[in-house]
Amino acid sequence: MVAAVADVDALLGLAAELAREAGRLLLAEAPDRADDVATKSSRTDMVTAVDVASEALIVGAIERERPDDGVLGEEGSNREGTTGVRWIIDPLDGTTNYLYGFPMFAVSIAAEVDGQVEAGAVFHPSLDELFTARRGKGARCNGEPINVSGHDDLSTALVGTGFAYDADMRRRQGRWLEHVLPSVRDIRRGGAAALDLCWVACGRLDGFYEAGLAPWDFAAGDLIAREAGAETSDFDGGPVRSGSVLAASPRIASALRALVAEAATS
Ligand code: IPD
Ligand code: CA
Ligand code: CA
Fold it and tell me: What's the predicted TM-score (pTM) here?
């Protein structure tokens, strides 16, 4: 059962507050690339003490405020709850950027109720931008309503994408890119999927696609993009549940989906 209206507002409020708080932590810390880094799924998949500290901050606060909720966090938090609410957390999206001093990194927190994402917050500390959405209530940046670009021509669309950490997957993604690049205005690889989705939401990108994403990468950003008017799906046009995510301004969404599908099968 979906939580009462006031409850979902409270979930969004908590997500926003914690995303800002964790974002301040990211700005305050400056990990050393040589000393403070471990790797996860591959040599290119880095994790810092700050990723872990940010998740501890967020999950600790959720446990204090809402001890019976479930939690799924990238850095290992995984707890079943009893309330129907589950928090999906990327405590630092864009770790590679963060470590190299590129400003595209963010904190992403979504609140799912009975399996459906109802509220999401993505905070981009470098620009002090907080993206938020509640299902059915639109998307905002720093409290102001945002909308997709409305672009209607794929050949002049600015499209974001990203690459997985797995080398074989990257090889495939490189081949897809070769197919997509000549058919669009240009490609951007921002390095933080949650922000890519928010940038589709506010029209800085006309579309975005990436395969191999995890729920914490897209749960909040997918809701924000949809609530801003984007069409979002997996590469086959189904709901975004698996790891492939495509989000675009509605008038180019099906053309971009067809192009990416063609690329993935070519
Ligand atoms: C990564 C970023 C990146 C995307 C990768 C993600 P992380 O998340 O979102 O843009 O291309 O697929 O894994 O590891 O920085 O949290
Ligand atoms: Ca991520
Ligand atoms: Ca992360």
Answer: 0.95
